[in-house]
């Protein structure tokens, strides 16, 4: 083996153990001291400038402390720190919200940047396989910014040139464990940049009570629940169609009822109509007085869908050449057709004639309804294509808890699971059905990154209250 080594390198071989790669003694070049001093000075200046640019407030405080110390001595610095501490405590006591917003979270962000991320950055990147070596020099993705909130740390990273988002997405588990989080979500920011979100406290772990009924009639979007960061989550309805997929007990009902709840004031004002299709007779029957129209039998559902198609086409004829977009009015209300377990109507329906009628009506509504104010919201358990061939006609899709990892991309589109939509890992406990129920990932129309959200639970008591207030004793069925 040694004979095969080229030329003089044989002299430098220091290890030839069979279980390790060959190690050579390094060739030492004597660098002039002045070059070493210049290189270190340059690194110091560049590092300081970078720190000042990235952390202007913290840097200014440090410089201020140094200046005060030089001018008036360390007692003055200690007095200043104590004074600032007292002011901060009073501020935090009087208005904790503004204190955290303008000062507290900045300090937490800085601390976590330094203690959690900066300290372990190189090591975690190397172990996760995100460091690249080019001609013997190692390159590490650049940790640019950390923003902490009650819910999560959001870490902004500049990738190495030539690196892709997918490389980070493939290593979410390594990154999460490396930085002491339970999970990590990778989001694209812009070309060459990536955002890593490390949830710290799961704001979605608790059941969210039904959202307040809107004060004004709303049709564009309705408040469904809460986003991962704690902000309200609104689902757009007008001008789109929504597919909600989730295993049994995943909480599809809370999504459907939150949609109904959010539209009730608009329906009462005559600007919206909610049509309910309830083939299992389990979901909407309890509050069927809340729907403008309601059907439960397969034949009734087929008739209702065809009625919707006819109304949609009549509206499209009227609009042709006159108006291109729908505006919800009393004459032309926004019609939302809410369907529980659509597979009962499309795949499991034994009557082929009915199945074909229903599939054709659904395809027509989902391809032509958006512009004229007809939206379909459908829920189903099994997202396979043979169960709902037209699933791609739903621009907004929601993946609640799913049984298998493959189903995530079936619902949210290719690569969604790699981007952090771990719908197959949403917790479930048959002893406590509320655990994880209503939690899901949403792929929005304008972003490839899935968002984790949780719908509010609309209880039977909420439905009773809504019925008392809004049931207009409809006689349409
Ligand atoms: N958003 C939520 N928050 C907390 N608990 C919820 C939520 N949604 C549903 N649950 C709980 O989970 C249980 C199952 O919910 P739900 O019936 O809506 O599931 P599903 O997906 O419609 O199931 P199936 O397909 O079998 O009808 C409910 O009884 C309720 O206790």
UniProtKB/TrEMBL annotation:
Q: Where is the FtsK domain?
A: 230-409
Which residues are listed as membrane-spanning? 22-45, 57-74, 80-99
What PANTHER family does the record point to?
DNA TRANSLOCASE FTSK, SPORULATION PROTEIN RELATED
A GO molecular-function term, please?
ATP binding
Q: Which UniProt keywords apply?
A: ATP-binding, Cell cycle, Cell division, Membrane, Nucleotide-binding, Transmembrane, Transmembrane helix
Q: Which GO terms describe its biological process?
A: cell division
Protein name as catalogued? Hypothetical cell division FtsK/SpoIIIE protein
Amino acids binding ATP: 246-253
Domain of life, per UniProt, equals: Bacteria
Which Pfam families does the record cross-reference, listed alphabetically?
A: FtsK_SpoIIIE (PF01580)
Q: Which InterPro entries match?
A: FtsK/SpoIIIE/SftA, FtsK_dom, P-loop_NTPase
